[in-house]
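Review form for a predicted model. The reviewer records the input and the model, then writes brief findings.
Reviewer: anonymous (R2)
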Amino acid sequence: YIAKKDSTVSLKCDLGDKDHPAIKSVVYKFHKTYDLSTSKPISLDSKNKELCSEDDVPTCDLTNVQYTDKPSMQNTLDTADNHIYQCYAEITMIDDAVVKLWSHTVKLDVYYPPTKENVPVVSDPKSVSIGKAMEKLLCDLPDSNPKTKARWSFEKKDTSTWVVIDIPNDLVRGDRLVIAEDDISAISKDDIDRGMLLIMIFNEDEDQGKYKCEAVYDTEFDDTDMTYELSKYEVTSNGEYFHYICIIYCTV
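Model under review:
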């Protein structure tokens, strides 16, 4: 289940036979956890927090829901809401026997858009040597949930048309371009951040021109979707060839 940050989410514990004549009373309980056990309900696990404990009604309202990027930590149960939820009904029968029935679990995710206000557009000329192994173009993506994506466009030198860079379908430059994602930035030793455009083996004929990066936030909630420019570069060749230093190891 998905909700917007600062909204209200209503959890419902629906017992279909609550009016059965054999039932004397029903008490409803709601719990949440950050780590779901495979062998026991949330309420019987130590990693839980009880919700709406004073209401004793089949609904529980989560108001002003918040997001954390570390939902698997115990201390976030008090400060955030993107966790796993479950309710149960404690049923007292006419003969005073007590039965507990647990619901299925629900995972709540909380979406929040990036902050667009006062975001400066980085504009930077680049003069690159022919054959340079890697040129990095920055796109400083803002925090959001889900993550804002980088969309790069290219206006080739001596043309006047912007074309969205579509790496898988680019038969000319696709094997030399990379838009960095988390898996690359996490293991990189070259200060590569998510959203960067990496130009490999700079080609004077194909790579000169203007580049721009737009932040794209797209969710199920159309009223929060947005696209705006973050960076723009004019990339030219300096006419020089990039020199590599090779170290050769010899054995005698």
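Findings: The chain has a mean pLDDT of 89.
Further findings: The radius of gyration is 27 Å.
Recommendation: see findings above.
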